[in-house]
Design a protein that fits this description.
The complex is a heterotrimer of chains A (336), B (335) and C (294). Chain B is built from 11 helices and 14 strands. Chain B is α/β, with parallel strands linked by helices and 335 residues long. An 8-stranded mixed β-sheet of chain B has the order 6-7-8-3-9-10-12-11, with helices on both faces. A 4-stranded antiparallel β-sheet of chain B has the order 2-1-4-5, with helices on one face. Chain B has a two-stranded antiparallel sheet with strand order 13-14. The radius of gyration of chain B is 21 Å and the shape is globular. Chain C is mainly alpha-helical and 294 residues long. Chain C is elongated. Chains in contact: A-B, A-C. Chains A and C meet through helix 1, helix 6, helix 7, helix 11 and helix 12 of A and helix 5, helix 6, helix 9, helix 10 and helix 11 of C.
Chain lengths: 336, 335, 294
């Protein structure tokens, strides 16, 4: 079938992309002036100490050798050892990844629901008060830093009104996490029927998810509105009216055709959420790979930084792959 | 004039587009009528408001356009007094429209079969399932009739998989699937290769004859009108400047603008030589000249033409000319 | 007609600027943006001087004071005056964003011109590499860069320049590819003009305006980015008066109910970003040929 052929082709493109990403993450850390070994050793270190660290990290070998070693290690699932946690980076990341994925997936869902709904609602009446409010909202949501909104929400809902749980991790300290299946607490709790854990995990999710959802719904709303305002006046929509299609049907044409390009944009936002999660995880003590990355950055833990960047890049590439496939399915024009 | 009641009667239709730059007067008292079974050609250069007129017959005016005055009667009932729901059940069912450049007029995300079926179901009173079944049959049937090979498979094709000519055929199928009383074909040859143009016109003609549809063919192509239309109305700056039956026009057009259009068609006979071609272009609808809209281009223009709008004069046998110099028997330019 | 306009870019720049200002002043939303941007530029130079207290000095015994007459935004956990720090912070945050964005435009434009104009294997490769870099979330990339190079203002500026340069390079490349095919460029080549003349006289001037508008929008994003980097502790270090860092320093106080340390610098970020977004929005609308501009 054509779809399978397309997927195969798209995955084939993915392979050189993957190598390019490996190369970029590798080079970024090596080629930047200032040796990481020096930075790691601190400003008072002697040359011998630096040299020793360089040797240990393999930095004394040629770049090509280093890259080959790096790729070889990666294929064995080895991203090096974090000197801060003294665990293999792969293990650290695998442990923390589900937490981040859970956070940003719910956030994306919320952002899409708010953004698409209000984007649609306001695009049919571009001059109404609602449309103006929506415009103002997306401007404001785009201007406020997510880490600040998180703090405001904590202040309001935890400190002042005390209706949200303390921003200390993914589940209340007094409740043991559900048995690990996917690593995502809400899902694991549901799968194991552990309602107590589910309730706690869900309530811990509320504030960070609302923070990210609010921030990221702004751009989605704006994008939806922009695309919809073009589609509303597209020739085929007018012609559908001329054919006497009922208003409901015409609106369905508008919505379906308008939302198709929004899919790509939502995919991009998913990737961006990955970046924003670092800030939010830090505030909520989330313990995902975002927080891991922040601690790696402050502790100059290069293997961990490299691992994080690789995972972030891979995550985005997989998202784009999926988006391309979805697009292939929903838009026949992409099949030409 | 024929006393038979017209099926579609457009009277004094005025449409303006209010934009930030000013008001564009696109239709300025347009009047024409279509009688049952007739084929009327509405002819004019591009930019004289032909498409706006076509869409107005369905009471669809794209914003920022507005109907300022006039009426459109279909079977004696004024469309402008009908509710939106009544209009919806009329559009595509009793009065249909085909549009040029069909590729951008078809929904790119739906198969042509789905779009045809939607158009059919929209005007069907049957319960949903039966309507669907009938719609499917009707769609295949109409695709076959408009000359699309292998219609059963083509139902699943998306618009982007069709050639320009095929897409135009699909648009014609969409317009005719509900067997409308009146078909308005807006520039059916627009954007097509010359060989395809001929095929499409042939098809349109065949379909109209077969179904006994009354047709309004809007074009800038006088040759097309000569072959297929019974009547012609020449349009300029949102008005009809001359209307008569086709033979009369080609034999003895009276209005300077009509003569100019005829002389630009090569094979309309020797009498319409290049000396009739008017200089200049149609006026900008935002800055229409006073008096007769043609006066800046007309070699015979006088003070009267610049100050006063000419009346419609029947110069005999239903041959109507909008010119100050028109009188019984023809146009005679005075001093 | 577009070709004519494009070929004759002899618009009077001064009049253009004036008419843009007039355009903004006629719309209340954009006027607000203009005022914010003007204020932020003013504060870059005079923010520290206007501050009632030295922004980086702790007053012992005056820690965690809520907003009051002497400290209208209160004081933070080490007794620094929040209002003074917010004013002085403009200098660092806005300067980083301005310089970083400027650098990214300066890097991006020539790169885009060259890889758009000369089509060969290497330029294709560079274009792909730019796509790839752009597919990595901006914040992740900037954070990693700063982590590797170390904090400090210069390094944040470099990181912002690096992560944003691909945007402008790609825009310029697209513009170049488009303009290259236009007939007036062909004509110019046939008339025997050199590549340099074609690039600088025809292609560059036409590509600049949309990039300029995009860069203005991105200024706000750059402010957020640099604040975010300092927020996670990878950027500037305490006691530098920087908004992101100030919000971060107040994180623990928030839990104690002392909201002011984080609140005010966050407001400063939000207002400033909003101002630059509005300016960019206005510029994009103003440059849109389909819109009226009087």
């Amino acid at each position: 079938m054509n779809l399978l052929k397309f997927i195969a082709k798209r995955v084939l493109i993915f392979i050189p992309q993957l190598f390019a990403v490996l190369l970029v993450t590798f080079l970024l850390i090596r080629l930047i002036p200032g040796s990481p070994a020096e930075a790691m050793a601190g400003s008072f270190a002697t040359d011998e100490v630096v040299a020793a660290i360089e040797e240990k990290m393999g930095l004394d070998k040629s770049l090509t050798t280093q890259f080959v070693m790096y790729v070889e290690d990666l294929f064995h699932g080895d991203m090096g050892t974090s000197w801060y946690t003294s665990n293999p980076v792969t293990k650290d990341i695998a442990q923390r990844f589900p937490a981040t994925l859970e956070l940003i997936t719910y956030s994306l869902l919320l952002a899409v629901i708010i953004g698409v709904f209000f984007g649609l609602a306001t695009s049919f009446r571009p001059n109404s008060i609602g449309a103006r409010l929506g415009k103002g909202y997306s401007l404001l949501a785009g201007a406020m830093p997510e880490f600040w909104i998180a703090l405001l929400l904590i202040f309001a809902f935890y400190v002042t009104w005390d209706i949200a749980p303390a921003p200390l991790g993914r589940i209340s300290l007094s409740i043991s996490p559900p048995k690990t299946i996917t690593g995502m607490y809400t899902i694991d709790a549901l799968l194991t029927g552990n309602m107590r854990a589910f309730k706690s995990a869900a309530s811990q999710l509320v504030l960070p998810v609302v923070t990210l959802g609010l921030c990221y719904s702004g751009p989605i709303m704006k994008m939806t509105r922009t695309i919809m305002s073009d589609v509303v006046n597209a020739n085929y929509v007018w012609y559908a009216r001329a054919c006497g299609l009922p208003t409901k049907k015409v609106n369905r044409y508008v919505i379906r055709n308008g939302l198709t390009p929004v899919v790509t944009f939502i995919g991009v936002q998913y990737g961006y959420l990955f970046g924003a999660a670092t800030l939010i995880e830090q505030i909520f003590g989330w313990g995902g790979i975002g927080q891991y990355a922040v601690s790696a950055v402050t502790n100059k833990d290069y293997a961990a930084i490299q691992g994080f960047m690789l995972v972030a890049a891979l995550f985005c590439m997989i998202i784009y792959l999926v988006v391309d496939i979805i697009y292939y399915i929903i838009d026949p024009r992409s099949r030409a | 004039m024929n006393n038979e009641k017209p099926i579609l009667n457009v009277e004094d239709l005025t449409v303006q587009f209010c934009t930030k730059k000013g008001t564009a007067k696109v239709l300025n008292g347009l009047s024409f009528s279509l009688r049952q079974g007739e084929k009327l050609g509405l002819v004019g250069e591009s930019g004289v408001g032909k498409s706006v007129a076509a869409w107005a017959c369905l009471k669809i005016i794209k914003p920022p356009g507005e109907i300022v005055s006039g009426k459109i009667e279909y079977k004696g009932e004024n469309l402008f007094e009908k509710s939106e729901n009544e209009l919806i059940s009329l559009r595509g069912n009793e009065i249909s429209l085909t549009v040029p450049r069909a590729h951008s007029q078809l929904n790119p995300l739906l198969t042509i079969g789905r779009q045809l079926m939607n158009a059919y179901i929209a005007h069907s009173d049957l319960p949903r399932r039966e309507a669907k079944k009938q719609a499917y049959e009707a769609s295949i049937n109409i695709l076959d009739k408009v000359g699309i090979p292998d219609p059963k498979n083509r139902m699943n094709a998306y618009p982007n998989e069709l050639s320009g000519g095929m897409a135009q055929r699909v648009v014609i199928a969409l317009a005719l699937i509900n067997k409308p009383t009146v078909l308005i074909a807006d520039d059916p040859t627009g954007g097509l290769d010359v060989t395809i143009q001929a095929q499409i016109i042939e098809l349109l003609n065949k379909m109209v004859e077969e179904m006994g549809t009354t047709a309004l063919i809007i074009t800038h192509h006088l040759g097309l009108v000569a072959q297929h239309c019974d009547h012609v109305a020449i349009m300029y700056a949102g008005q009809i400047v001359e209307s008569c039956d086709t033979e009369t026009l080609f034999a003895s057009a009276q209005h300077p603008y009509s003569k100019s259009m005829l002389s630009s068609v090569r094979d309309t006979g020797d009498q319409w030589g290049p000396e009739f071609i008017l200089p200049g272009r149609p006026p900008n609808p935002m800055e229409l000249p006073g008096g007769c809209y043609l006066n800046p281009r007309c070699p015979h223009a006088t003070e009267l033409c610049r100050s006063k709008e000419p009346p419609y004069v029947d110069i005999g046998g239903g041959h109507i000319v909008k010119c100050h110099f028109a009188k019984e028997g023809g146009v005679e330019y005075g001093k | 007609m577009a070709d004519k306009i494009a070929a004759g870019t002899t618009r009077k720049k001064k009049n253009e600027l004036l008419s843009f200002l007039r355009y903004m002043l006629r719309r209340p939303g954009y006027t607000v943006g203009l005022i914010i941007v003007a204020t932020s530029i003013f504060l870059i130079f005079f923010g520290t001087a206007l501050a009632p207290y030295p922004p980086e000095m702790s007053f012992s015994g005056l820690e965690r004071q809520p907003p009051n007459a002497a400290h209208i935004f209160g004081t933070d956990s080490v007794g620094m005056d929040v209002f003074s720090r917010v004013l002085a912070g403009t200098k660092i945050d806005v300067t980083i964003a301005l310089v970083g964005t400027f650098l990214s435009v300066v890097i991006g434009i020539p790169l885009g011109l060259v890889i758009g104009y000369y089509k060969n294997f290497i330029s294709e490769l560079i274009a792909r590499a730019l796509d790839l870099i752009q597919s990595i979330p901006v914040f992740v990339l900037a954070m990693v860069l700063v982590a590797v190079r170390g904090g400090g203002i210069i390094n944040i500026i470099m990181a912002i320049a690096f992560v944003n340069a691909p945007i402008y390079a790609r825009m310029m490349r697209g513009q170049t590819l488009e303009q290259k095919g236009k007939s007036y460029v062909e004509a110019s080549r046939c008339a025997g003009n050199s590549d340099a003349v074609i690039i600088f006289k025809h292609i560059l001037p036409n590509g600049l305006t949309p990039i300029f508008a995009q860069a203005t929008v991105n200024l706000g994003m750059a402010i957020m980015l640099s604040a975010g980097i300092s927020f996670i502790g990878a950027g500037v270090k305490s006691p530098t008066a920087e908004w992101g860092l100030m919000v971060s320093m107040g994180t623990n106080e928030i839990i104690l109910g002392q909201w002011w340390t984080s609140f005010f610098p966050g407001v400063a970020i939000a207002i400033t970003v909003l101002g630059y977004s509005l300016l960019g929005d206005a510029l994009q609308h103003y440059l849109d040929p389909l819109e009226r501009k009087d």
